[in-house]
TrEMBL record:
Entry similarity comment: Belongs to the LysR transcriptional regulatory family.
InterPro entries in alphabetical order: LysR_HTH_N, LysR_subst-bd, WH-like_DNA-bd_sf, WH_DNA-bd_sf
Keywords noted in UniProt: DNA-binding, Transcription, Transcription regulation
Descriptive protein name: LysR family transcriptional regulator
Lineage: superkingdom: Bacteria
GO terms assigned for molecular function: DNA-binding transcription factor activity; transcription cis-regulatory region binding
CDD domains per UniProt: PBP2_LTTR_substrate (cd05466)
Keyword Manganese: no
């Protein structure tokens, strides 16, 4: 049996596109080349993958079962190739790291200091962005690492290690209307303007959005400034109060009466496991994993 990566890509594309011709258009090939590749794959596997009845091929039960394994297999093949390439290439020319805006106050610079000492010739570029934008930068290869909040569902090509817990709190200026109540009901939250940290892409709905009326900003420092000016309430890192004790004179942590929102998150270091990893990236991943093992 001699199955190659191109055959698997073609098979996966046919299954997703629903026809040989649609797969051919997607792959930039002629339909006959796609059909021939599938036929050769069937010979190599000694399996019938598609029933060629009617205008479109119908996948067999065996094809459906194999398709469930194909994406992971392709990821692992890419991982193997990229790892081999990384072993031969040595240190990367630059390392781009994006830190989610609300996490800029964390001790992320400790990792940068460690890399600088270990690889003094390495160029390190740090970016700050809202959570959704940080994920985009990671997925499209602009950043090799992202320091971000945990998410319910990862992309199939992402890998991560937990770093710490982070607490966010709902706050308002001491003179803001909501701050005058010991406990705030959900209807009051709905009707009060929220200052929310969100993606620069206005088509992406902010994650921690509760109010019907809201203003957006891309970082928690500007959000804090607007909240202090009585322009609305918002959700900020609790660590900001430790960093700047004077905030306690201006801001009040709000108590929600009707529900308890999930404002405690794990902070993850995330990377694309299909991307080429140089010596510095591998060093950072190994260091963080060892650090977590020793801590927990």
């Amino acid at each position: 049996m001699n199955i190659n990566q191109e055959q698997l890509i073609i098979f996966k594309t046919v299954m997703e596109a629903g026809s040989f011709s649609a797969a051919a258009r997607h792959l930039g090939k002629v339909p006959s080349a796609v059909s021939m590749s599938i036929a050769n794959l069937e010979i190599d596997l000694n399996l019938k993958l598609f029933n060629r009845v009617g205008r479109e091929p119908v996948p067999t039960a065996q094809a459906i079962t194999l398709f469930e394994k194909t994406e992971q297999l392709l990821i692992e093949m890419n991982q193997w190739k990229q790892y081999a390439l990384a072993l031969s290439s040595g240190l990367e020319s630059a390392l781009n790291i994006v830190v989610v805006s609300e996490l800029l106050h964390t001790h992320w610079t400790d990792y940068i200091t460690l890399l600088a000492h270990q690889f003094p010739e390495l160029q390190i570029n740090i970016f700050s962005a809202p959570q959704e934008d940080a994920q985009k930068m990671l997925n499209n290869g602009v950043a090799q690492f992202a320091l971000m909040f945990e998410r319910e569902q990862l992309e199939s090509n992402e890998q991560f290690v937990e770093l710490k817990r982070e607490v966010l709190v709902p706050v308002a200026s001491n003179t803001y209307a909501l701050a005058q109540f010991d406990a705030i009901h959900f209807e009051q939250i709905l009707q009060s303007r929220q200052i929310v940290v969100a993606s620069r892409d206005r088509n992406i709905r902010p994650e921690l959005l509760y109010s019907k009326k809201y203003w957006r900003t891309d970082n928690h420092h500007s959000a804090c400034a607007m909240i202090k000016q009585n322009l609305g309430w918002g959700v900020l890192p609790l660590e900001m109060f430790t960093e700047n004790p004077l905030l306690k004179k201006h801001l009040k942590i709000l108590n929600f009466a009707d529900f308890t929102p999930k404002f405690e998150y794990f902070v993850d270091l995330v990377w694309n496991r299909e991307s080429q990893q140089g010596a510095a990236a591998r060093f950072l991943i190994d260091h963080v994993k060892k650090q977590r093992k020793n801590t927990f």
